[in-house]
């Protein structure tokens, strides 16, 4: 029986993962080692009972009594806190879903690689902050990282049977997010509610706002560079409002392979769950005649400075990805809480990158996770200062 763990089980990707595990037979088909979540302990407990998990972990200590009560008599062990999540990752499982949001997902995914096995990686922040370390750790332990981000799953699938040396370019598609048709002068005043109205995908709140600011695509460009090892100038971004083509690979003979499908995360999650096989999945089938047309346009770097900053990060590499992501997380917190404008998020990130370039060796490769976490920590402090400066 295959053993599985899901980190971030109660989130958007976690729910889709749970749905697939249950459809494929649940506890009769899978031995569930660990499920983790945050404050939604009722849902975490429900999932843990359904899959008969060995342990359920909440990220927050104050949620432990509620989780313990919800799982009383179930035989599921309970734990809480960051260290408990890391311990859960130390329990071997054949297939591990990394779907915690933000830099908090880095350590559990990294630790899970120690067991060999397969790491289904939704947490793009892991590759952005510590790509080189993660790839090396996977190789050292003969573990396989399977991309779950829809674009990277598409690219991964387009590359099956292909020689990486024949790849000329990778074309990442972007829906453009909720504000893609807004004129530049309106963007500064965009509210959280407006940024949350994603046209195609249903996702967690943070990644939905990152889609509107294109910080999500910026992270994905860096993720592409780190995961596939292509050079930055081989990576292109194109706005494709319908979100039907999930990404494309161009080869040296001029051929372009595109991956199409309905925008449903259960496709890339299911592909990673069944890899290297393809199994039937409960996703809507495309009706191309009904769609009629697929459209494309170049992204506007004035309106989306995040894409320009991603280029800077790829040129610097080293610890700059960790700094970029941490500064973005802090800026996003302040946009959500109120007080920081939509376009000011990029200002904060740019200020932090500039400041840290003069403060630490930003381009020096991380020797260990500790280096990454230190850069993340410092960037958060500088970002909070930058926010204060901007708010005045
Ligand atoms: P989400 O906000 O819906 O869920 C996040 C999960 O992480 C929840 O289970 C939450 O409890 C948990 N969590 C939050 N903070 C935590 C912390 N500090 N420590 C431990 N656990 C914590 O997020 P999501 O939309 O499912 O995204 C998860 C990851 O997958 C992100 O890295 C995102 O970029 C990536 N991703 C998501 C989608 C999508 O469709 N939602 C698509 C591609 C990639
Ligand atoms: Mg994506």
Describe the protein:
The structure is a single chain. The chain is of the alpha/beta class. It has 3 domains: 2-147, NAD(P)-binding Rossmann-like Domain (Rossmann fold, 3-Layer(aba) Sandwich), CATH 3.40.50; 153-262 and 287-291, no CATH class; 317-391, Rna Polymerase Sigma Factor, Chain: A. Helix content is 47%, strand content 15%. The protein is built from 17 helices and 11 strands. It has a 7-stranded parallel beta sheet with strand order 4-3-2-1-5-6-7, sandwiched between helices. A 4-stranded mixed beta sheet has the order 9-8-10-11, with helices on one face. Helix 6 (124-140) packs parallel to helix 11 and helix 15 packs antiparallel against helix 16. The longest helix has 23 residues, at 369-391. The site of magnesium ion has 4 residues, from helix 7.
CATH domain class of the largest domain? Alpha Beta
- Average pLDDT, to the nearest integer? 97
Q: Can you tell me the CATH topology of the largest domain?
A: Rossmann fold
Radius of gyration: 20 Å
Bound molecules: nicotinamide-adenine-dinucleotide, magnesium ion
Through-space gap between termini: 58 Å
Beta-strand content estimate: 15-25%
